[in-house]
Write a structure and sequence with these properties.
- By secondary structure, this protein is mainly α.
- It has two domains: 95 residues, no CATH class; 143 residues, Orthogonal Bundle (Cytochrome Bc1 Complex, Chain D, domain 2).
- Helices cover 47% and strands 7% of the residues.
- The strands form two sheets. Strands 1-2 form a two-stranded antiparallel ribbon. A two-stranded antiparallel ribbon has the order 3-4.
- The radius of gyration is 25 Å and the shape is elongated.
């Protein structure tokens, strides 16, 4: 397949298959939102057009099938088919975008679902109830840990949660719901650090049933980050936003069974 037109068609088809079906198959990946698929496809199309138009001979050959389909008498059925199929396709897409559906969610959703009392992190059992950020025990090293958390955040979390930790990263418009806005007083300001650790470690796949049907698209970061790295990110989130985490209420009679601010 040496003709540039059919090469371009093959590249676009392959790119769509990889983005739509290939990426979600990768470990820790989620379904790519339709808006993000469109953005990538537009980028691929722009790259293909730049390539085929870079050489005059290649550009002329690329246009040959398009010109033939528009003017040659023998290809009149193709033109007529296009006049029918294209408006139908556009109408079908438009209808899908504007039609209203009246359907209740299958489950009531909790924004902050209750965490499990215990989780497994890379084969290690962690009890979340009463668990504090172990890095806070090293007061002399807190500045270093916060700096490391900042580095890890900007390497991994910035595209979704944004430069200002407000959930407005450049990937954010492609998600429903939007990534968490850590600047909002209804997010980490209401949570213990162990809760935030759990949500980062387990991501969307680790949400309980009450977290559906709008599951988070966040991956399981335990597949990519160590336990210490996640605790460092948690430190950075609170340091950068100025919020103080909720703490566990400790009692000699009741143990660490509740939280307070």
């Amino acid at each position: 397949m040496k003709h540039p037109f059919w090469q371009a068609v093959a590249i676009l088809a392959l790119a769509f298959i990889v983005i739509e079906w290939g990426i979600p198959l990768l470990p820790g990946s989620a379904i790519v939102p339709a808006s993000v698929v469109l953005q990538y496809m537009v980028t691929v199309l722009a790259g293909v057009l730049i390539y085929v138009s870079d050489d005059e001979a290649r550009w002329r050959k690329f246009r040959e099938p398009i010109t033939a389909a528009m003017v040659e008498p023998r290809l009149k059925p193709v033109r007529m088919g296009g006049l029918v199929v294209v408006p139908l396709l556009v109408g079908w897409i438009a209808y899908g975008q504007v039609r209203t559906t009246v359907q209740a969610p299958p489950n009531l959703r909790s924004i902050h679902p209750a965490p499990p009392a215990e989780i497994t992190f890379r084969g290690k059992s962690l009890t979340l109830t009463g668990l504090d950020n172990p890095l806070r025990e090293h007061a002399d090293s807190l500045a270093y840990y916060v700096g490391e958390g900042k580095r890890i955040y900007y390497q991994n979390c910035l595209p979704c949660h944004g430069d200002h930790l407000d959930g407005l990263g450049h990937f954010a418009p492609g998600f429903n719901p939007l990534p968490a806005n850590f600047q909002d007083n209804g997010t980490i300001a209401q949570l213990t650090e162990s809760f935030v650790f759990w949500r980062i470690a387990k991501g969307g796949p680790g949400l309980p049933r009450e977290g559906t049907p709008w599951n988070s698209a966040m991956p399981r970061w335990e597949d990519f980050l160590t336990e210490r790295e996640i605790w460092q990110v948690v430190l950075f989130l609170y340091d950068q936003t100025g919020w103080k985490p909720r703490t566990w209420e400790r009692s000699t009679e009741q143990g660490a069974g509740s939280t307070h601010e």
